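User:
I study polymers; will you set down one protein's sequence and backbone structure tokens?

Assistant:
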Amino acid sequence: MSRVKTQNTDHSYIRAAERCGWSKKKAREMMRLASRYGTAAGNLQPGPVKDFITARQECTHRRIKLYQGYVFVFASTSTKCITVYPLEIGKELQETEEKQLTEIEKIEAMLRL
């Protein structure tokens, strides 16, 4: 059985180092495993994680998979990884949005008085 060598983007390695602290070798291995064993975005339960992933899937040329607490964005026609996000970023964004909504609701309540 021959192995197909995947050419990930340089951008994906840079982002993996910045966001996850991975070396190029570790990033390459995680991207390979995520492509093969990751959970597709369509198979996730509704909730903040799925909302975060769906927001990154606005383009049709992307496949998004979740693997070991990381979100991997792949090209739809190959196993080439475009970028990676730690899931904590999604949680932080969700919490920030919730805080902003709470502040807006407080201001609206004060204006009604």
About this structure: The chain is about 50% helix and 20% strand.
